[in-house]
Amino acid sequence: MAKGDHAGVLEELIMLAVLKCEEDAYGLSIQRTLRDAGRALELPTIYTSLQRLEDKGWVTSRLGGATAVRGGRAKRLFRLEGAGKHALKDAESARRRLGSLNPALGRA
Predict the structure, then answer these.
(1) Which residues lie closer than 8 Å to 24 by C-beta, 6 or more apart?
(2) Cα–Cα dist 17/1, whole Å
(3) What is the reported pLDDT for 94?
(4) Please, which residues bridge with residue 62 across strands?
(5) For the segment 38-57, what is each residue's pLDDT rounded down to a tens digit?
(6) Pairwise CA distance, residues 104 & 61, whole Å
(7) Are 92 and 103 contacting, i.e. CB atoms less than 8 angstroms apart?
(8) Please, which contacts does 52-59 make with residues 24 or more away whose CB atoms are closer than 8 Å?
(9) CA–CA dist 29, 9 (Å, integer)
């Protein structure tokens, strides 16, 4: 596989947050979800990663409706695509295989 075919840890976390947010996955909701999971990330980091994930075809985005709360601006909503789900499954599978090779992890 070529470089970039595998998800990095940050990409995995963001894709998992997008998945957890379901239909309401936008920058701030993704940030809150990650913070609730103990991973505080700044919005620019999240948006840069989302752009990279979109470039890979692992997430897609669309503009939601404009809201008065946002001064008439629309939210950019993100959705995890099949290729992104596949990348997450591959990463989980690799972790399971590697973990089973290292019994010392069970004693930590």
Answers:
(1) 77
(2) 25
(3) 85
(4) 77
(5) 999 999 999 999 999 999 99
(6) 41
(7) no
(8) 52/11, 53/11, 53/14, 53/15, 53/84, 54/78, 56/4, 56/83, 56/84, 57/81, 57/83, 57/84, 58/7, 58/11, 58/15, 58/83, 58/84, 58/87, 59/15, 59/18, 59/84
(9) 19
Contact at 8 Å (CB) between 64 and 48? no
Q: d(Cα 31, Cα 70) in Å, to the nearest integer?
A: 17
3-state secondary structure 11-62: HHHHHHHHHHHHHHCCHHHHHHHHHHCCCCCCHHHHHHHHHHHHHHCCEEEE
- What count of residues does the chain have? 108
pLDDT digits (tens, 9 = 90+) for 69-104: 777 788 999 999 999 999 999 989 888 888 776 666
Quote the CA–CA distance of 71 and 78 in Å, as a whole number: 20
